[in-house]
Amino acid sequence: MATTLTPEFIRAIPKTDLHLHLDGSLRLPTLIELAKQEKVELPSNSEEGLRERVFKDTYANLPEYLQGFAYTCAVMQNAENVERIAYELAFDNIEEGVRYIEVRFAPQLHMHEGFSAEQVVRAACKGLDRAKRTHNQGENVKNGEDIPFEFGIIVCALRFINPEFSHYYRRLFQVLSYSPDKSVQSTASFEAARIADRLANEAGLPVVGFDLAGAEAGFPAGDHREAFRFAHRQFLKKTVHAGEAYGPESIFQALRDCYANRIGHGTWLFAHEKIKDPSIVDREGYTRKLVEYIASERITIEVNLTSNLQTDPSISSVAQHPLRQMLEHNLSVSICTDNRLMSNTSVSREMQLAVDELDLTPYHFRNMVLAGFKGSFFPGTYNEKRAYVRQVQQQYKALVAKHLPGQP
Q1: Within 10 Å of residue 376's Cβ, how many Cβ atoms?
Q2: What is the Cα–Cα distance from 106 to 154, expressed in whole angstroms?
Q3: More confident residue, 68 or 405
Q4: Which of 166, 207, 266, 274 is the most exposed place for a label (fewest CB within 10 A)?
């Protein structure tokens, strides 16, 4: 299949990125330029030096992978920079045929006195919308030969925080030090859910979902259940980073306690040997039921191949990744980038990796592409989403006829 599903075809087809961190997807030259402008000290002022010291090909673990965010967030403390970064991200996606993205970030990492959560999100939306309007006004979109570009915003809560993360968190720790009965972590995530609700349901911004991000180790999703209950009551869609470092029970906790509509990563969904709860005696049976539940409920899994290989030493190659297993179980799976800068990747590159290493059939590949559109938290009505997906299906069929004659 590697010779059939060509790079030209993969680049041409309409694609999605549902798991895309804004602060992990800067252009490296932009980071260097803005760091100089904002007087942020980087470990190196050259692209080669930063690739060697910070944004590497391989990382020891997830915490090391996350260290680069300290530098990217430091240059995202004003509206002009956030708007520029969002515009460049949308432009880069449009250039490689991505037609729908959901950009996630924690406004709390960027807000401070004079730069509110709403201003942060508005700046990102302004940049994304500028790229969208440029593309959608093109003749190919107007005459129906191309797909319009659309986007949504996902507000993130963080599994772990400390006062050094931002001005906002520093202030929160100060306030809650006078309330020892309140957990800083759970309070912070609840406040993030309130921000998401206010921006989506009062400010009218295209905030389409709420997420829980960050390292799983020692910070279970259940600690944030009140935030997700609130988001659920406000009809916000939910996605949770789960199964990236822990196994099936972590994924089930995201479904049970956080009402997750999608799962970020889900890498260890099939790893029954990673279950730690002693009350789960039949671990294989537990995992089998969980997989069937996710399949039947069409809970989309946001798979990030390069990111997983970089942060988990136990996965030495794409061939060892459970993506193939997910597709064979007919799970709804969408290929994503996670962080284009940290992983030096694109959606087309991630799809090419899957094709080259996993011998995907055209059937599995098509389902994987369409799953991104069908599993999206589209910022319009359900009927508008259905019409958009139908347009994508027609475009995909036409591109198969053009690039892969004879293929179904």
Answers
A1: 25
A2: 8
A3: 68
A4: 274
63/229: higher pLDDT: 229
Smallest CA-to-CA distance from 81 within 45, 41, 126 is with 126
Return the percentage of the chain with pLDDT > 90, whole number: 82
| Cα-to-chain-centroid distance, residue 265 | 9
DSSP secondary structure letter of residue 18: E
pLDDT in tens, 156-206: 999 988 888 899 888 888 877 655 445 888 899 999 999 999 999 999 999
Q: Give one word for 200, left, alpha or beta, with left for phi > 0 and alpha for psi -120 to 50.
A: alpha
What is the radius of gyration, based on Cα positions, of the chain? 20
Please give the Cα distance from 399 to 362 (Å, whole number). 13
Give how far Cα 403 sits from Cα of 100, 143, 365, Å.
22, 21, 15
Three-state secondary-structure class, residue 17: strand
**Residue spans per domain, the chain:** 15-389
Please name the helix (run of DSSP H) or strand (run of DSSP E) that holds residue 105, with its range, or none: strand 98-105
Distance CA 126, CA 200 (A): 15
Whole-number Å distance between alpha carbons of 308 and 315: 8
DSSP string of 73-91, one letter each residue: HHT-SSHHHHHHHHHHHHH
